[in-house]
Amino acid sequence: MSEKVFIFDTTLRDGEQSPGASMNTAEKMRLATQLEKLGVDVLEAGFPAASEGDFEAVAKIAGKLKKVEVAALARTSKKDIDRAWNAIRHAAKPRIHTFIATSDIHMDYKLNMTRDEVIKTAVETVKYARSLTDNVEFSAEDGSRSDRDFLCRVFDAAIEAGAKTINLPDTVGYAIPEEFGDLVKYVIAHTPNLKNAILSVHCHNDLGLATANTIAAISAGARQAEVTINGIGERAGNTSLEEIVMGLYTRSNYLPVSTNIKTEHIYPTSRLVSMITGIIVQPNKAIVGANAFAHEAGIHQDGMLKNPMTYEIMKPETIGLSKSKLVLGKHSGRHALRSHLKEMGYDLSDEELQLIFSKFKELADKKKHVVDEDLEVLVTEGILRTSDVFCLEYLHVTCGTTVLPMASVKLTINGRSVQGADYGNGPIDAAFNSIAKLIGTESELLRFSVSALTGGTDAQGEVTVRLQENGLIALGRGADPDIITASAKAYINGLNRLEYLKTHPVEATEGL
Ligand code: KIV
Ligand code: ZN
Q1: Ligand found nearest the CA of 73
Q2: Any residues with CB less than 8 A from the CB of 304 and at least 6 apart, and which?
Q3: Which residue of 291, 315, 405, 482 could cross-link 430, Cys pair, CB 3.0 to 4.6 Å?
Q4: 257 Cα–ligand 1 center, Å
Q5: Distance in angstroms (rounded) separating the CA atoms of residues 330 and 360
């Protein structure tokens, strides 16, 4: 039997630290449910001491999920640990994840602490966390740039104090695979207590080496990988779950280890993360990018027809990438919609189902084939965004070759209806100008992109925007068969996310 590598997913914590990727509580709950279905072993739900919003989301996730371990992050302080524990204490399988930096540069300049003080703090905190739960993880932040022997001393002491998992992060994405694998071997050889704990790694992608470093670490003996869906995360992101899981799956002949991930849920989970966060997956992204299974060169296409294994090392079905399924049509009833949504992971109340059903009927009138991706959009826009301050009620645009593009818009702002009109140098510009005037936003549009949600000319247009206001960045996403409406929805979604950030300030990220 192959040895198991535990998958620790941190999309909801480190992933959410991607600029603009903040998610509301309903979106986090939906994603957490999907991650449990995907089969991750541990789900890091957030950093409860960072903000009220984080605390609330972690507590809700912890209260709902029964199969997966739910971890909460905490600095090495009693206050943070209490906050983390209060958020996860009702989880079926809670885990406290505490961390302190161990590199000289962090200890000298950030913490202002000596090595002995860091060890003492780590030990005291792990012991305290251990008095609350027997499932404690300890991380040595900036571990890859720490003095090796000191690192081993800290790890030995943390395990002695009760940590069950020891995490070695490459916090700034500085390591090189051979070097990182070598560090893992060194740590295993020089930390006697590691025989009583699991060694984990957590890599960042600043040099594009996060996956390679994680694989090197697993090859050297690490047995937990900390990852995010689509590799989202702080700066250049984290190691991507799909790359590690499919790397281990495809090359099990080389590395005889396995994971609990149900690979057929990888692609739907990747889509969901992109939809909720507004972070688009680059087309050439390994495993889940739009081109990952596309064969362009004639020679390749010819080989594929003769035997797919000539150019395909994985089957698209393995990651759940099949042709979009025709799920429901114009004549499908409420019952069929409910049971299909349930299969997708949405357990809707009668009231929510009614709302989605009427939106589904509207869409089915405009679009012949309604597929999973379309339903996902309906639920994301109709249910998960219920805390929105701004909602689009109505959009009317006139444009053409001989008229000045004009848009009239009706919105609700905190439930109050407002309407107005403006012009622009194109219909989308006109729509954005009208919306901006009604809301009185001072945000700046940094990026705008359009793509098609599925294939075919009746596909919904998917628009993503990136907005900035007073140092806050938010991404917005919208989809509709009409791309001007999709653009307006994306803009309004971005403005709602900015509003969310203004009202949910992050109180404690220093040290991450
Ligand atoms: O990158 C890092 O060091 C972290 C720790 C909190 C594990 O995210
Ligand atoms: Zn990190």
Answers
A1: 1
A2: 295, 310, 311, 312
A3: 405
A4: 25
A5: 8
Half-sphere exposure of 418 (CA within 13 A, CB side): 17
Residue nearest atom 6 in ligand 1 by C-alpha distance: 512
Q: pLDDT tens-digit profile of 302-353?
A: 777 788 888 889 999 999 986 556 568 888 889 989 988 888 778 888 999 9
Which atom of ligand 1 is closest in space to residue 13's alpha carbon?
A: 8
Q: Which ligand is nearest to the CA of 238?
A: 2
Residue 298 DSSP code: H
Q: Which residue carries 């779950």 as its tokens?
A: 241
Specify whether the CB–CB gap between 364 and 327 falls below 8 A.
no
The model carries a pTM of: 0.88
CB of 424 closer than 8 Å to CB of 430: yes
The whole-number pLDDT of residue 207 equals: 98
Q: Which residues line ligand 1 (CB under 6 A)?
A: 14, 99, 139, 141, 167, 169, 171, 202, 204, 512
Distances (CA, A) of 157 to 152, 166, 223: 8, 11, 20
Separation of CA 359 and ligand 2 centre (Å): 39
Contacts of 509 (CB under 8 A, 6+ apart): 17, 47, 50
pLDDT at 508: 59
Tokens of 135: 């499932």
Q: Which of 137, 255, 120 is nearest to 199 (CA)?
A: 137
Q: Give the residue, by CA position, lying nearest to ligand 1 atom 1.
A: 171
Cα of 205 from ligand 2 centre, angstroms: 10
Q: 226-258, pLDDT tens digit by residue?
A: 999 999 999 999 999 999 999 999 999 999 999
Q: Kindly report the three-state secondary structure assignment for every residue of 377-422.
A: HHHHHHHHCCCCCEEEEEEEEECCCCCCCEEEEEEEECCEEEEEEE
Which positions of the chain have pLDDT values less than 70? 1, 296, 322-327, 386, 507-512
Burial (Cβ within 10 Å: 0-12, 13-18, ≥19) of residue 237: buried
Cα–Cα distance measured from residue 288 to residue 281, given in angstroms and rounded to the nearest whole number: 8
